[in-house]
Write a structure and sequence with these properties.
The protein has helices at 5-14, 45-55, 72-79, 91-103, 140-145, and strands at residues 34-37, 40-42, 62-66, 83-88, 109-113, 126-131, 146-158, 161-169, 175-183. The chain is α/β, with parallel strands linked by helices. It has a seven-stranded mixed sheet. Strands 1-2 form a two-stranded antiparallel ribbon. A hairpin with a 2-residue loop joins strand 7 and strand 8 (161-169). The radius of gyration is 15 Å and the shape is globular. The relative contact order is 0.15.
């Protein structure tokens, strides 16, 4: 059964964004991206919600998240899927997000420190893939790890302007790309960094 938009929205509203930031910023309630250190940001809340809804999550889905960051998006994904495999390249963010999410009681999140642009092939294929940093091109490795019938949400473009794409893989392996909106994300670290 597909997670209903209102259920995701209600859970999203119950998450305290401040608890996903090491320094509880007074402006955490604003609908904008905020710095979390190491040149990274916690995404604009409305965009986190929009991207999650666009995935079309179902209870049985195995999800790959590229860019754990603060763990805010990860928590939302984990509440509406079977398992989340999340990859973070920055050791300090990896450690703090892992500790934070484990303390919150999540048991269906699996963590990897590494180059997210390469995905996590050991657990592929994934029903859904979400990338929370911008790439110069669609990583072939992630396309290969996306299950047939799966969907990936990813920002693609250049430093100051990207398109948020929904990429659907048909049962015969063909890709259909839909531009959802113009966005601006921090760059994806690793092989596909612009």
């Amino acid at each position: 059964m597909t997670a209903r938009k209102q259920d995701i929205t209600a859970y999203f509203r119950s998450l305290d964004r401040r608890s996903f930031m090491d320094r509880h910023q007074q402006d955490a309630e604003l609908d904008e991206a905020l710095p979390i250190g190491y040149g990274q940001t916690i995404s604009q809340p409305s965009l986190v919600l929009e991207m999650t809804i666009a995935l079309g999550l179902e209870e049985h889905h195995k999800v790959l998240e590229i860019g754990t960051g603060s763990g805010f998006q990860t928590a939302l994904l984990a509440a509406f899927s079977k398992d989340v495999y999340t990859v973070e390249k920055i050791p300090e963010l990896y450690k703090s997000a892992k500790n934070r999410l484990e303390m919150k009681g999540f048991e269906n999140i699996h963590f990897l420190l590494g180059d997210g642009s390469l995905g996590w092939p050991e657990h592929a294929p994934y029903d859904r893939i979400i990338v929370t940093a911008a790439a110069s091109d669609i990583p072939k490795e992630l396309v290969d790890q996306l299950a047939k019938g799966g969907r990936m949400i990813i920002p693609i473009g250049h430093r100051y302007s990207q398109d948020l794409l929904a990429i659907d893989k048909s049962n015969d392996g063909k890709l259909e790309k839909t531009a959802l909106e113009a966005v601006r994300f921090v760059p994806l670290k690793g092989k596909y960094e612009y």
